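**User:** My hope is that you can spare some time for a protein that puzzles me. As I understand it, each token names a local backbone shape. I would be glad if you read both lines and explained how they fit together. The protein I mean follows directly.
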Amino acid sequence: MQEQRVTLVLFIRHGTNDWVHGRLAGWTPGVHLNEEGRKQAEALSQRLGDLPIAAMYSSPLERTVETAQAVATPRSLHLRLIEGLGEVRYGEWQGAELKELYKHDLWPGVQHYPSGTRFPNGETLGEVQARAVATIDSLRAQHPQEIIALVSHADLIRLVVAYYIGMHIDLFQRLVINPCSVTAISFERMGPRMLAYNDTGSLEHLRPRPEPVAENAGSTDGR
């Protein structure tokens, strides 16, 4: 018999914006989805179909809120903004162009030794992972045997995926999370299982299925 899920968490990255490939947005205000990002968010809502999402949570930044609203509004879900799902606090790096950050003495540490690297006047990636995991564990405890959707950012999602699959934080840069992708982790009695990773296609396989019924269930005459 298939083991019953405890909670299924959908980790969704926000859609594309004009900062995605060139600058480190961080908590910079006013970074909105561009036209491509809005189309991605609409397509995401369609891909999720009638998956029975019980609750929707989002980072408080505009690009995540706009993505989450594209899913929550047609489903009449109340969207809750959660600080713990917010982007990495990059400190002095916030708003900088990536081509300039590549030259920074700290860049190799961020890529290869994130467990021991702090962004200038910002967070360490270990701190981000810890506050994100604490937030997620709290949210999933509120939703036993339900599906919840969390809209966040690439680095945060990569960090929590690494944590739940047992990957050392120094290896998290090997993971890729694309705009409006869905990563699904089922939290079960035996521990977390990743059911989808960086998925931008059909999500039909995430639909809950009824427990199989044994043949002749309820029969008392042995036939």
